[in-house]
C-alpha cells in the first residue's frame, strides 16, 4: 500500500507541478502539503482528474502549530487539513494547507465539495480561519456573543466571559469571567489500607 501511495503522490505532484517533497507517505498514508494560493486549483484537479477522482470530502479541520517544537519546518501558525476519499479508485489523501499567522485566510472550497460548508464554518468558529468566498461564514458551535476562538492554543481554558439568565432583563447577559478559589485537596473520610498502620496505632494507644 505504501508503494501504491508513493506512486500516487508522484503522479499528483507531476500533474500539479509541485516539488516531489510536497507529497509524503508515512504509516501507509499520503499527505500533500500546499500553499493557500494553490489549494483551489489543486482541489478541482484532484476531484476531476480521471486518475485521482477524489469525489468525496470526509473531513476538514483547523490546526494551530503555535506550540510546535520546530517552527522552522512549519513557517505558519495556522493550517487546514482536508481528508479526501476516491470512491472510484478506493484511495485516500490528506491535504495540509497553511493559512498564515495573524489573520489566517484561505479560499473557500464550497464550489468544489459542498459538504465542506459546515467544516469551514467550524474552523472559522474554533480557530478564526477566514474562508474567502464562503456563502455563509458564521459561528456554528459557540454562542452568538462568544468572544475569541476556543481551539487556539493561546485561548484561556476558562474563557473570557460567562453568561447567565437575568430575570430582571428577561434575557441572557454576558459578564467577565469570575472564578471562586476552591480547596482541591481531597479529605480522607475513612481509614483504608493506606492508613491501616495509623489506625492500629490509635487503637493500641486507646487500649
Write the layout of secondary structure elements.
Elements: H1 2-15, E1 23-26, E2 29-34, H2 39-48, E3 56-64, E4 78-86, E5 91-100, E6 105-107, H3 116-127, E7 130-132, E8 161-166, E9 171-176, H4 196-205
Parallel strand pairs: 2-5, 6-7
Antiparallel strand pairs: 1-2, 3-4, 4-5, 8-9
Give a description of the structure.
The protein has helices at residues 2-15, 39-48, 116-127, 196-205; strands at 23-26, 29-34, 56-64, 78-86, 91-100, 105-107, 130-132, 161-166, 171-176. The protein has 207 residues and is of the alpha/beta class. Strand 4 and strand 5 form a beta hairpin. It has a five-stranded mixed β-sheet with strand order 1-2-5-4-3, with helices on one face. 22% of the residues are buried. The protein has four helices and nine strands. The longest helix is centred in the N-terminal third of the chain and has 14 residues, at 2-15. The model has no long low-confidence stretch (mean pLDDT 86). It is 22% helix and 27% strand. The protein is extended and about 65 Å long. The chain has a single domain (2-205), classed as NADH:ubiquinone oxidoreductase Nqo5 subunit (Beta Polymerase, domain 2), CATH 3.30.460.
Amino acid at each position: 500500500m505504501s508503494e501504491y501511495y508513493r506512486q500516487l503522490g508522484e503522479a499528483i505532484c507531476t500533474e500539479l507541478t509541485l516539488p516531489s517533497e510536497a507529497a509524503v507517505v508515512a504509516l501507509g498514508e499520503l499527505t500533500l502539503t500546499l500553499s493557500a494560493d494553490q489549494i483551489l486549483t489543486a482541489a478541482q484537479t484532484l476531484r476531476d482528474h480521471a486518475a485521482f477522482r477524489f469525489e468525496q470530502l470526509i473531513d476538514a479541520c483547523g490546526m494551530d502549530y503555535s506550540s510546535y517544537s520546530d517552527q522552522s519546518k512549519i513557517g505558519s501558525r495556522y493550517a487546514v487539513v482536508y481528508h479526501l476519499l476516491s470512491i472510484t479508485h478506493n484511495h485516500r489523501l490528506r491535504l495540509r494547507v497553511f493559512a498564515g499567522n495573524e489573520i489566517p485566510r484561505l479560499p473557500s472550497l464550497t464550489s468544489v465539495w459542498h459538504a465542506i460548508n459546515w467544516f469551514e464554518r467550524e474552523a472559522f468558529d474554533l480557530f478564526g480561519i477566514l474562508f474567502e468566498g464562503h456563502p455563509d461564514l458564521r459561528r456554528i458551535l459557540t454562542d452568538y456573543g462568544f468572544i475569541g476562538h476556543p481551539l487556539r492554543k493561546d485561548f484561556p481554558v476558562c474563557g473570557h466571559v460567562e453568561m447567565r439568565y437575568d430575570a430582571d432583563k428577561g434575557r441572557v447577559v454576558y459578564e467577565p469571567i469570575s472564578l471562586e478559589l476552591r480547596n482541591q485537596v481531597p479529605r480522607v473520610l475513612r481509614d483504608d489500607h493506606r492508613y491501616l498502620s495509623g489506625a492500629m496505632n490509635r487503637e493500641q494507644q486507646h487500649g
